[in-house]
Design brief:
Layout lengths: L13 H12 L2 H35 L4
């Protein structure tokens, strides 16, 4: 019984395939704008998480000790 042959090229990921379709459907400027918008969304989420964590730390520090 022989082993299966090894692929020389990697199978593209879903993200890679999605970007390929995106590049066919959108102009370069639209792709850049969409990526910039998504980067902003991710950064806003990170800042919101940081704010919640900071608020929790402040509330614990201010809580009365029993």
């Amino acid at each position: 019984m022989q082993a299966a042959p090894v692929r020389a090229t990697a199978i593209p990921s879903f993200t890679t395939a999605l970007r390929a379709v995106e590049s066919l459907l959108m102009s370069s400027g639209q792709r850049t704008a969409r990526r910039n918008a998504w980067t902003s969304v991710l950064e806003d989420r990170r800042r919101a998480k940081d704010r919640v964590e900071a608020q929790q730390v402040l509330e614990r520090a201010h809580a009365p000790r029993l």
